[in-house]
Design brief:
With 101 residues, the protein is mainly alpha-helical. It folds into 2 domains: 49 residues, no CATH class; 37 residues, no CATH class. The chain is built from 6 helices and no strands. Helix 3 packs across helix 4. The radius of gyration is 23 Å and the shape is rod-shaped. The protein starts with 7 loop residues before the first helix and ends in a 21-residue tail after the last helix.
Length: 101
Amino acid sequence: MANQYQDSLPNKIQAVYHRSAQSVLSDFSAQNLSYQNVSEIIGCKVVTVKKWCRLYHIRLQSDAPPPAVKLYLDRYRKHLKAARIDRYNILYHKWPTEKFV
């Protein structure tokens, strides 16, 4: 098993794929694999894969949930599109343009 405290991950990838670790990780990135998937394929821990991807400036798909803003919009979309103004959509609707008396 590759260890993050040694240079064994590039050596392990070189032995298995007969290519450099950077090119193999780039191929995994092109296939849209996540850090978890790559760690299962290679046989090491996720933090080790993240370390070497960071070293080679390679980004894989994240296993993290979507950002909080997207979750908020998905959850309250029906409230935002409602005709009447309530606490969810008070800033979403346009204010009336006529003058108040």
